[in-house]
Structures are given as C-alpha cells and as structure tokens.
Amino acid sequence: MKAEPEPWIIQAMREASFYDHPVATVELIETHISWIFLAGDNAYKVKKPVNFGFLDFSTLAKRQHYCHEELRLNRRFAPQLYLTVKQIGGSRNAPALDKDPALEYAVKMRRFPQNQQLDRMLVDNQLQLRHITKFASKIAELHKLAVSEKAGQTYGSPRSIIDPMLENFEQIRPHIKESDASKQLAKLEQWTHNAFEDLKPALRQRKKDGFIRECHGDIHLANMAWLDDQPLLFDCIEFNENLRWIDVISDIAFLVMDLDDRNESGLGWHFCNHYLQVTGDYQGLSLLNFYKVYRAMVRAKVTCLRLVQGHLNEMQQRATEELFQGYLDLAERYTLPKATPLIITHGLSGSGKTTFTSELATIYGGVQIRSDVERKRLHGIAATAKSGSPVADGIYSKQAFADTYARLQDIARMALRSGSPAIVDATFIKQNQRELFSRLAEKLQVQLTILDFPLSKETLRRRIKQRILGKTADASEATLEVLDYQLKHEDPLTRVEERFAIRVSPDTTAETIAASLPNQIVHGHSEKG
Asked: Where exactly does CATH 3.40.50.300 map onto the chain?
C-alpha cells in the first residue's frame, strides 16, 4: 500500500522558522512509516498515514495514540532521548507547534550525532568487541527486568508467533515478479511451516517458563547508539503489542541476523555468547535459527514496502531490490545444514583456554561454554563474585565438579542440537570428564576436537600471579594452590584422545584452528550503513 504524501507537513517542518528553538538547517529522513526531521539539537518524528495490517497509522487519533506509546515505551531504554509529544495545529497553510486544532503529532527527541549509531560506527570501522559486550550485558539486564507475560494472555502462543511470520510471505508475494524469487519465497514459507510444527512443544514451554516478555522488538544496529560511552537502545516497537511481547530470543535474533547480513557474523557470535553467559538461557538456542529466518523475512518485507511506496530514483530502486534479494538469500542460508563440531579444551589454569576459545567462537562461530561461569551459576553465585571456596571443597568439591561437567554436557547438547558448534572451556584434567563428551559426540554423530594447551609449570605460575595482581574481574578463581592441585591430579591425554587433539601453543592463532575445522559460517551480503 502506497503512503499518501503530505506535502504541507513536509514543507512546513523543513523550514527552520517552524521550530521554537534555534535551528540553522533541517534534514529530512524518510522510512516506510515515518518522516524524521533533524532540527537543531532535536529530532521530530511524524508517523505516515499508512495501514499495513500489522501497523495502522491511518487516522489522526491513531497517530496521536502511537506517538504517546512511542514516548512511554522508549523511555524504558532511553529516557534522556525521548522528550515529549508535540501537537502540530493551526491550518495546513500555516501550521505551527502547540496550536489548535490538532492537525498532526510528532515525537520530540534529543538529537545525537548519527555517527554514534552502531550501523554508522560499523561502516566507519569504529565498532569494537567491547561495544558489543556492553550491549549484550545491557540487553540481558533489560530482559531480566522486562515485564513477563501474564497468565491468560495470548502473547507468545504458537498462533501469535506463526501469524506474523506467515504475514511476511503474504505481504511480499503480490510484489514478486521473478519466478526464481517466487520459488525461493515458497521454499522459505514451507520451511517456516515445518520448523514451526517441530518447535511447537518448545514454543509452549518457553511461554510456560516466562520467557515471553515486553521486549524492544526491533533491535538492530540502526536502533542502537553508543552515547556518553554507554550503550543505548531506541525506536522500539510501539505499533503492535504482539510484535513487542515476544520471546527474548526473538529479540536478540534480530541483532544477530543484522550482523550476519553485514558480513559481521563474528560480532554476532560474540554478542550471542556474552548474552547467554550472562542469562544462562541456553534453552533458547533451539529457537534462535527459527527466529533469525523470521527476522530476515521481516527485513525483506520492510524493504519490499519501500519499493512499493515508490519515490526512488533508478539507483535507489536497484539498490533496494538487491537488499531485498539479499535478505531472501540470507534467510535461505539459515535453513541449510551446517557443520556442528564438538570442541573441548584440555589445559591447566593459566594456560589461556578462555581467551583462546572466546576468539575461536567469534572467528569460527559457535557457542562458548565456560565451566567457571556455569559452576557459579549452579550455586547461585554471580560470575565475577568470589566464592571463598578452598581447593577441592565448596563449589570445587568432587560432587560440584560432577554437577558442573554434567551442566556443561547439557549445554553442549542443546547447542549441537540447535545446529551450532559447541566450544567447551574447562580444564578437563580427568579422563572420565573427557569421556562424557566423547560419548556425546558419538551419540550425536558430530566431530570431536580436543584443544590441548600444554605449558610449563613456570609459565602457568607466572600467568596466575599476573592475573591475581591485575585484579581483573573474571569468573576464574584459580590460585597457585589450585594449580598445584591440578598438577597432582591431571590425567594426560590417552593415545586415542591424541588422535582428536590439536596442540595449541602460545604462537597458535584462533584463525589457524578455525581454518582446520569444517566450514559452517553464514555469510551476509552487504556493507549497509
């Protein structure tokens, strides 16, 4: 459906004299549902009078309502940005702010430099792992605090999940002319149906377990900013409750998909791993790919709507068509089987396992599972808090070790069954611990790789001393006493295990190891800003 142009509002709000604060120039940004006017220190967002079914801004009353909803909901994430709702009134020939009768409404926001949006930072090579880590922690905390769906509500039911997914295909199909794209769309729609049927029990369980919450709903790089050296989300879904009351995994799937699309799958894995380590929500992995396909199709639909609305020159038309096809291709790649090796480590405290496996998970792609984090989670202790447990006692007792390795095995199983490589970061100094994972690999028929970290006692002792003196917050509580205990009780790799082992020396890079593993990376298609 084409949006009816509103030349009077555009012409008026493009004039610097329209505003009640100093404005030198006005910049207009147009999306498929909004006009955004960048004026001085502020931005004004006006909703287009459109009705796409999943979104209805067709009347002034509805636009007023959703302006106030946008203000209310986004203040959860960015109260410093969302200022007020401004009424635009008077007459169409002489519209003015705060005049009667009301002709239109705008959300007034604090303006920030656009180069601080994450999509711009990525293009400018300014987006770093530390930014992604901070956003993962921030979003994990927001999800923890988010209101859960109440008993009796339909949000998060299988029907409420599949309906918007199928709506994507219904709204795209009338606008596809090429037979190849039509076949691709039909294939993706059938995959969605099949995956939905397979995942129904998991979807119901997620709802029962309280993972349906009032989320952001539209987390991608263009709705994220690094402001005042802090992560900031903005522009959440205000126009459709069913698209906002969703599984937290659906919320993060949008960002992971967006990073994949921009050829930054490593950043996506880094985000996902840090989020999972903070939340412990590894059960959600079974749904991640399902929701990534959905999110790719959402972007395909939005891109299609831009094409339908017109107002594009030939170059913009061609570029938008390529974006649309790129999202279809990405969604299809998510449906293809990928290699899912099981990778475990073998090395004493201080050997560099955690740093190396973190880099490997980012470069190769995979779920990094940390024993130090999961051990503390089992005992209700924060990852970086100190337990005060002595060697071989407390959370490091024989039973605690057995419980921890059982937990690591459960998470690895969940990761592998979800179609993701599992990278388990633990000492694995006992042969029976390694045997658990050998049997798991055999049962699931996946490749097992042991990353062996052999270092001299002197080097290990020096590294542990440096870590203790550095006082860096970390989940590890390794001390020299712990190292001495490990040295006395270590079972060396057997001859059979040596066949699956790769020695990791201080000179070995994660890139080298990644190149030796089966290729399973999903490549994106664009360098969008």
From this structure: 342-516
Instruction: Work out the number of other CB atoms within 10 angstroms of the CB of residue 126.
Output: 13
Q: Would you call 36 helix, strand, or coil by DSSP? A: strand
- In single-letter form, the type of residue at position 123 comes to V
The answer for residues whose C-beta is within 8 angstroms of residue 87's C-beta and 6 or more apart is 97, 98, 99, 100, 102, 104, 105
Cβ atoms within 10 Å, residue 64: 16
What's the 3-state SS for 103-131? EEEEEEEECCCHHHEHHHHHHCCCCCHHH
Contacts of 110 (CB under 8 A, 6+ apart): 41, 42, 43, 80, 81, 82, 83
Residues 409 and 502 sit within 8 Å (Cβ to Cβ) = no
The pLDDT assigned to 528 comes to 46
Taking the CA atoms of residue 330, residue 509, residue 276 and residue 120 in that order, the dihedral angle to the nearest 10 degrees is -50
Residue ranges in the chain modelled with pLDDT below 50: 1-5, 526-529
Phi, psi of 15 (to 5 degrees): -90, 130
Of 378, 353, 383, 361, nearest to 452 (Cα)? 353
Parallel, antiparallel or unpaired: strands 102-110 and 224-227: unpaired
pLDDT at residue 128, as a whole number: 97
Class of domain 342-516 as given by CATH? alpha beta
pLDDT for 175: 86
pLDDT of residue 133: 97
Ranges of CATH 3.30.200 domains, the chain: 7-111
Tell me the C-alpha distance between 339 and 449, whole Å.
Answer: 13
- Top-tier CATH class for 118-334: alpha beta
Fold for the domain defined by 7-111: Phosphorylase Kinase; domain 1 (3.30.200)
Name the DSSP class of 148: B
pLDDT at residue number 1: 40
Locate CATH 3.90.1200.10 in the chain. Answer: 118-334
Of 485, 407, 133, give the one whose Cα is nearest residue 477: 485
